[in-house]
Amino acid sequence: MVVSNLQQQRLVTEQLRREAAIKRMPVSLAVKDIIKYITEHEQDDCLLVGFSSQRVNPFREKTPFF
Amino acid sequence: MENDGKDCPVETIESLTKEAEALKKKLEDERQKLNDITLATVADRLDIINYMNIKPRRTLKGHQAKVLCSDWSPDKRHIVSSSQDGKMIIWDAFTTNKEHAVTMPTTWVMACAYAPSGNLVACGGLDNKVTVYPLSLDEDVSLKKKTVGTHTSYMSCCIFPNSDQQILTGSGDSTCALWDVESGQLLQNFHGHSADVMSIDLAPSETGNTFVSGSCDKMVLIWDMRSGQCVQSFEGHESDVNSVKFHPSGDAVATGSDDATCRLFDLRADKEVAIYNKESIIFGVNSVDFSVSGRLLFAGYNDYTVNVWDTLKCVRVCLLYGHENRVSCLQVSPDGTALSTGSWDYTLRVWA
């Protein structure tokens, strides 16, 4: 039992050692990149900017002619 | 094989616990040091979202109990859904027709997923299993079903990582597992959560060796699929994490929780960078997904609504009403033209 507790604590500590060793960047830089990605893709985002015309919406209402 | 004690001092529970405490504090300090600004502040200069014209376009009726999960086909037209009624249904979302209805040997089919080829679906739930069904129009799809993997508790989520040959599952047994579809062999096991895994998602990179998991232990973990190791962990949620989703940029993950909040965790800043909540929103979030640019975050709630958040300004831009019970699952179609939602009201809806 003691051995398995030691084993478990070793795993927890080793995990924390790995996580503490990773490189981090400032939030300001990280969010700048997210904003850049979004800005570059916004014009293709139909749920955000809509369709150029309802005709190109694959889920438009069926027209009464059919 | 000499064991010279000088290089490895004896580790005791006490020394390891002490070191763990010190590491936790160091981690927190490091993260705070780099916390130089908020996302909403940086996004302040951006235009607000004023055009929102998302409407209900289709209602898919056929399940006889709660819809629990759904997934778009890569063809952007079909949807697979699974339900508490023990059925998996393949829908043509354009026409609302049912193309297949498969009865599972269990109720509460909590997970279903399309393979990248579109020719295969996987599902499972309270049977603890993940079963794949090759899709063909000429015969009963259950004739060719194949059980790929078995957990020691219910299977809550599944996803094909980039090919039809492997499937990644999450389970109530608190682990995730990677299986070989052909042989049913367990390729990798992922231990790290201390409670039920509720949701998993793959990083959107071509190499695709990273995935995220969310759990009832309130934690969000990032995994390396090859090594099986947890590489990052995020805490912050105050209750079960029901849904996790990578931002299309691959640099962040969004989460939805029973604590009535959605959050955004940035992998490179290694911390939470946004929280999406309002005082008036008190019900849990079951499912989240991004629009293709990542500007919108859709979230399905227990109060029957879908809230649409501006990911950057951290404000709600719109509310989608329609379902008559909890919204249990939602997903943006692969080309980003539509949003599917599934509910405890037995229906699925398509919004565009």
Commentary on this structure:
The complex is a heterodimer of chains A (66) and B (352). Chain A has 3 helices and no strands. With 66 residues, chain A is mainly alpha-helical. Chain A is elongated. In chain B, strands 1-28-27-26 form a 4-stranded antiparallel sheet, with no helix packed on it. A 4-stranded antiparallel sheet of chain B has the order 2-3-4-5, with no helix packed on it. By secondary structure, chain B is mostly beta strands. The longest helix of chain B is centred in the N-terminal third of the chain and has 21 residues, at 13-33. Mean pLDDT of chain B is 95; it is low at 1-5. Chain B has one domain: Methylamine Dehydrogenase, Chain H. The radius of gyration of chain B is 21 Å and the shape is globular.
SSE order of chain B, as H and E?
HHEEEEEEEEEEEEEEEEEEEEEEEEEEEE
Helix content of chain A: 55-70%
The largest chain-to-chain contact, stated as pair and per-chain residue counts, equals:
A-B, 43 and 65 residues
Q: How would you state the average pLDDT of chain B, rounded?
A: 95
Mean pLDDT of chain A: 88
List segments of chain A where confidence is low: pLDDT < 50 over at least 5 consecutive residues. none
Number of domains of chain A: 1
Specify the CATH class of chain B.
Answer: Mainly Beta
Radius of gyration of chain A: 26 Å
Q: Return the CATH topology of chain A.
A: G Protein Gi Gamma 2
Distance between the termini of chain B: 67 Å
The CATH architecture of chain A can be named as: Irregular
How much of the sequence lies in strands of chain A comes to under 5%
Oligomer status: heterodimer
Q: What global shape of chain B is seen?
A: globular
| The CATH superfamily title of chain B | YVTN repeat-like/Quinoprotein amine dehydrogenase
Number of strands of chain B: 28
Main location (chain A): membrane
InterPro entries (chain A): G-protein_gamma, G-protein_gamma-like_dom, GGL_sf
Organism (chain A): Exocentrus adspersus
GO molecular function (chain A): G-protein beta-subunit binding
